[in-house]
Amino acid sequence: MDYVKAFVVGGLICALIQILMDNTKLMPGRIMVLLVVTGSILGAIGIYQPFAEWAGAGATVPLLGFGNSLWKGVWKSMGEDGFLGIFKGGFTASAVGISGALIFGYLGSVIFKPKMKS
């Protein structure tokens, strides 16, 4: 049942974002920034973490979850390092995910040898 819940929640988030993309003139990059910032704000006010625990990967995989993990890293680092934690916390919290994305993206490009469109 956890898989179904994650699939439905992730699908709903993606559907809402697709509606936003279709009905506004916002560029995809701005929508991505909006999602990360929204996830950070929802995490800061304490709404996103209980939602993510309930929804599982359906809430943590989209960019909203990335924003929430950035916020958690900043909050933890601020407690340990004070003001410097504002700048340091997001990097330490998201380093593994970003590194994994870069490594697997590189491996995929080596295996499948992508070519430029002409």
Automatic annotation (TrEMBL):
UniProt entry tagged with the keyword Ribonucleoprotein: no
InterPro entries according to UniProt: Spore_V_AE (IPR014204), SpoVA (IPR005562)
Keywords assigned by UniProt, alphabetized: Membrane, Transmembrane, Transmembrane helix
Chain ranges passing through the membrane: 6-24, 31-48, 54-71, 91-112
Domain of life: Bacteria
Alphabetized PANTHER family for the sequence: STAGE V SPORULATION PROTEIN AC-RELATED (PTHR38450), STAGE V SPORULATION PROTEIN AEB (PTHR38450:SF2)
Protein name, entry field: Stage V sporulation protein AE
Species in which this protein is naturally found: Lacrimispora xylanolytica
Species lineage: Bacteria, Bacillati, Bacillota, Clostridia, Lachnospirales
Gene name for this UniProt entry: spoVAE
